[in-house]
Amino acid sequence: MASKLLRAVVLGPPGSGKGTVCERIARSFGLQHLSSGQFLRENLRGGSVVLQLWACGVGGFGSITAAFLPLTTASFCFGACAGFPRTLGQAKALDRICELDLVISLNIPFETLKDRLSARWVHPASGRVYNMDFNPPHVHGVDDLTGEPLVQREDDKPEAVAARLRKYKDAAKPVIELYKSRGILHSFSGTETNKIWPYVYTLLSSKIPPVLSDEEN
């Protein structure tokens, strides 16, 4: 485990690579990756009690996230799946639970996001995500682990992507401004997660000792 507490959030539009970045942070720095979508699936399936649960959103662009009491004493990286917090209401809700040390914002060009999202297919039961361009399933159209069919979400279809990205931009702007005003926002731009990651790793290495080298990740 990390020897120092660090509470970080990764922000970014749909398809920006939040999940990949969070997973790498968790491995490299011994942090717990809190994926809101994963928490909900596991706790609803297992019948566990979620200690704190809220829903916040703007119009039809809301999301649901789960937060557990150990957040107040744990190191974590919060992001991916629902992309929490993606609205000002969610950011203020998170403030009531803990104080963030670091916010990482992923800035990916619109055309890159459009291509990524349009090529994305998911396994509904598990939430596993595949990209037909750079992370395809072993067998076309089916999940690697279960062999069950993959589906393309309605909001990942090309005609829905542009509106989805516009909604994110409008909702996320005040969130980004909030964290920028606190001096904890760090923005990274690029078209490939592998090229952005070394800069994220360097930033975090200045805040908390890594448990893996960049080459080991």
Main β-sheet: number of strands, strand sense, barrel status? 5 strands, parallel
Count of DSSP helices?
A: 6
Structural class estimated from helices and strands: alpha/beta
Order of helices and strands: EHEHEEEHEHEEHEH
The CATH superfamily is identified as: P-loop containing nucleotide triphosphate hydrolases
Keywords: Kinase, Nucleotide-binding, Transferase
InterPro entries: Adenylat/UMP-CMP_kin, Adenylate_kinase_lid-dom, P-loop_NTPase
Family: Belongs to the adenylate kinase family.
Domain Adenylate kinase active site lid: 120-155
What does this protein structure show overall?
The chain has about 220 residues and is α/β, with parallel strands linked by helices. It has a single domain (about 5-205), classed as Rossmann fold (3-Layer(aba) Sandwich), CATH 3.40.50.300. It is built from 6 helices and 9 strands. The protein has helices at about 20-30, 35-45, 90-95, 110-120, 160-180, 195-205, and strands spanning about 5-10, 30-35, 50-55, 65, 75-80, 100-105, 120, 130, 185-190. The strands form 3 sheets. The chain has a 5-stranded parallel sheet, with helices on both faces. A hairpin with a 6-residue loop joins β7 and β8 (about 130). α4 crosses α5. It is globular. The relative contact order is 0.20.
